[in-house]
Specification:
The structure holds two protein chains of two kinds. Chain A is an all-alpha fold. Chain A contains 19 helices and no strands. The N terminus of chain A is likely disordered. Among the domains of chain B are: 37 residues, no CATH class; 96 residues, Immunoglobulins (Immunoglobulin-like, Sandwich). Chain B contains four helices and 13 strands. In chain B, the strands form four sheets. Chain B has a five-stranded mixed β-sheet with strand order 6-13-12-8-9, with no helix packed on it. The relative contact order of chain B is 0.12. At the A-B interface, α1, α3, α9, α10 and α19 of A face β6, β7, α1 and α4 of B.
């Protein structure tokens, strides 16, 4: 782990203490963001009958919510850059809550699209990005572990919400359940309250008062920064006050991550969506098929913190991008081998392996972005990434569904997903090999340059004294 | 119990009995069995199709709202000729209703599915509803329970959770305020040190450290 990385933030992250409370808050927020849209499917059958609509029309509620959550990423980033994580998360919690409460009085399906889909999705976006960003500000040494723990929120909340939603539905019908869910999701405000802004005590104050000066100086010193431009640098103090940092698109690591992820997301979620239908297609009964998803969530929730722990070790941390590439490739291989699974035992085995692969990937998903970009720019980066990923996330399952319908067989869908993920894994591996080499070269160059300039500075310091001595003599 | 005696000839080492029965009405349904002396016996149960998908747990709805109660016949079985709906009234007294009260009830039948829509629910509408699929020779019945509750029911847990959230948020923020008060009260001197130490650093080495610092930052 390069020691110089710490000074790039401008302060020393606590790496513990209140940071763990922040991880708990992020756990809750991330958990709700990912699990909430998926868990609403319990109510769809009754709402479909109530409003007399087709299943695809009701499924749109989840899709609109997911789409809004991803598309509102940049808005979230801008707000976090300006106001910090805490107020944004609390407002997000209030938004989802009010969306659900309004939806419980809904009189038409459009009402649900707007309240649950748009308002709810926006609120979840205001929960997801700030949670990811704030973990990066509190941790550096233990960051992979903190990220792994925070991302574990998703399977844990899903595992809890699914039976809870069923219970609420049996007791209160869909309207009462939406009302109570509105209250439950308000706990995101509790998560937000935990997200105390980190004390940047080492950084002196004047930095925040000079954003216009900093941007001018940036232009003048741009030539000096060519060398470090692609490294994880907090190169301008005024970044926190800018809106979105579009210069990220010139960042080599960011581009690798973006391109790889966009392709990867086409094949990532489809197997999760089609796991239970595939099992039923094989002749397995409904309850055992649903149980597969529970196994998946259970494996997932244990693998994520373990992956975080592994990612923190001194062997993996410096080359964590390779670990991520391996996780993506592992997913691909898992899906390619799925059609070989026979019977229920085979499917359970596949689910366990898939759960491990998926958990590994998700635990590292944002950690590697932080590793490439640095905590300062992470907020803008994650906003840009999520809005671009919005497309593949939404299109992936329907395209896979079309594949299944076209061939009448699930195995081609698994092959397609497997090929996409394996190819992405190889892409990441190759590109990061190249990127690490480049980074090492640049680091060597900048160290050499620093040595040169410090020698020159010593000479410069000597000359005014020489001059004064000369004048004194003269 | 009716009994028919048939003499069977041996064909290809097997004794085969084949009998054709005409199922005309409900009386023709039931249990049939054939026996070969004391050596072999086979039982058959002839029955009409049974209702497939019915919700076993109660449907919950709200006063003033409307609800859809659904009964579905398995699509592999033949379509019922017609459907009837009954509401349980008391112990086992059942009332048949059609479009006698069109404002209140709506029956929508579509092939294998029948839907009863009840509007303007009141608490008296709670109870068991029976859907009856009618065939030429048999009828089949399924039942669904409806529970009508007021909005006060979910409101209680709703308010309880809101109170919990407010208490937790207040506790966390108050804890933070008290922590920062402790820090500012005991750490005023340390704060002064922190603001002082960078400035001498800035003054002493602007030439040597600033250029390197510019590079790092």
């Amino acid at each position: 782990m390069p020691p110089a990385a710490e000074t790039k933030l401008g302060y020393t992250p606590p790496d513990g203490g209140w940071g763990w409370a922040v991880v708990l808050g992020a756990f809750i927020s991330i958990g709700f963001s990912y699990a909430f849209p998926k868990s609403l499917t319990v109510y769809f059958k009754e709402i479909q009958a109530y409003f007399s609509v087709s299943y695809s029309e009701i499924a749109w509620v989840s899709s609109v919510m997911l789409a809004t959550m991803y598309a509102a990423g940049p808005v979230s980033s801008i707000l976090v850059n300006r106001y910090g994580s805490r107020p944004v998360v609390m407002v997000g919690g209030l938004m989802v809550s009010s969306g659900m409460v309004l939806a419980s009085f809904g009189t038409s399906i459009i009402h649900l699209y707007l309240c649950v889909g748009v308002i709810g999705g926006l609120g979840l976006a205001f929960n997801l990005q700030p949670s990811l960003a704030i973990v990066g500000t509190y941790f550096h040494v233990k960051r992979p572990l903190a990220n792994g723990l925070a991302m574990t929120g998703s399977p844990v909340v899903l595992f809890t919400l699914a039976p809870l939603n069923q219970f609420l539905f049996d007791c209160f019908g869909w309207r009462g359940s939406f009302l109570i869910l509105g209250a439950i999701v308000l706990n995101c405000c509790v998560a937000g309250a935990l997200m105390r802004p980190v004390k940047k005590s080492v950084k002196p104050q004047p930095k925040t008062e000079t954003p216009p000066a900093a941007s001018e100086e940036d232009g003048a010193r741009s030539s000096d920064f060519q060398i470090e431009e692609n490294q994880t640098e907090s190169r301008c103090q005024g970044c926190a006050h800018r809106f979105i940092d579009f210069s990220l698109f010139k960042h080599r690591g960011f581009l690798i991550y973006l391109i790889g992820n966009v392709v990867m997301f086409f094949g990532l979620f489809a197997p999760v969506v089609f796991l239970a239908p595939y099992a039923r297609h094989q002749g397995i009964d409904e309850y055992s098929s649903a149980f597969l998803l529970s196994i998946f969530a259970l494996v997932d929730m244990f693998v994520r913190p373990l992956t975080g722990l592994l990612g923190n070790t001194k062997w993996i941390r410096p080359r964590i991008q390779y670990f991520f590439s391996f996780a993506v490739f592992f997913n691909g291989v898992c899906h390619l081998l799925c059609p070989l699974a026979q019977g229920y035992v085979g499917l359970v085995l596949y689910t366990v392996v898939f759960g491990m692969a998926f958990g590994m990937l998700c635990a590292l998903l944002f950690e590697v972005l932080m590793d490439l970009i640095g905590a300062q720019h992470f907020s803008s980066a994650v906003g840009l990434v999520t809005i671009i990923e919005c497309g593949p996330v939404l299109l992936g399952p329907p395209i896979s569904g079309a594949l299944v319908d076209a061939f009448g067989d699930y195995k081609y869908m698994f092959y397609a997903c497997g090929v996409i993920l394996s190819a992405c894994g190889i892409f990441f591996f190759v590109m990061h090999f190249y990127n690490y080499k480049k980074l090492d070269e640049e680091r060597k160059q900048s160290l050499a340059a620093e040595r040169r300039t410090s020698e020159e500075a010593v000479k410069l310091k000597m000359s005014p004294d020489d001059k004064a001595a000369y004048e004194a003599e003269g | 119990m009716q009994s028919i005696r048939v003499t069977v000839q041996l064909e290809n080492d097997k004794y085969t009995l084949r009998q054709v029965f005409k199922i005309v009405s409900k009386e023709n349904l039931g249990s049939y069995s054939c026996s070969f002396g004391d050596e072999a016996k086979a039982d058959f149960l002839l029955a009409g199709p049974q209702i497939g998908e019915v919700r076993d747990k109660p449907i919950v709805s709200y006063v003033g709202d409307s609800v859809v109660v659904k009964c579905k016949m398995d699509e592999k079985k033949p379509k019922p000729a017609s459907w009837n709906w009954y509401k349980a009234n008391g112990t086992d007294k059942e009332q048949i209703f059609y479009a006698a009260e069109p404002q209140k009830y709506e029956i929508k039948n579509h092939e294998w599915v029948t839907k009863l829509v009840v509007h303007k629910l009141t608490e008296g509408d709670s109870g068991f509803y029976y859907c009856e699929g009618v065939y030429a020779v048999s009828t089949t019945m399924g039942h669904v329970e409806l529970k009508v509750i007021t909005f006060l029911e979910p409101l209680k847990p709703f308010i309880a959770i809101i109170v919990e959230v407010i208490v937790l948020v207040a506790a966390i923020l108050i804890y933070e305020k008290s922590q920062s008060k402790k820090n500012s009260a005991g750490g005023n001197e340390t704060n002064a040190d922190q603001t002082n130490t960078p400035t001498p650093g800035d003054n002493n080495g602007p030439e040597e450290s600033s250029s390197t610092r510019q590079r790092k930052v």
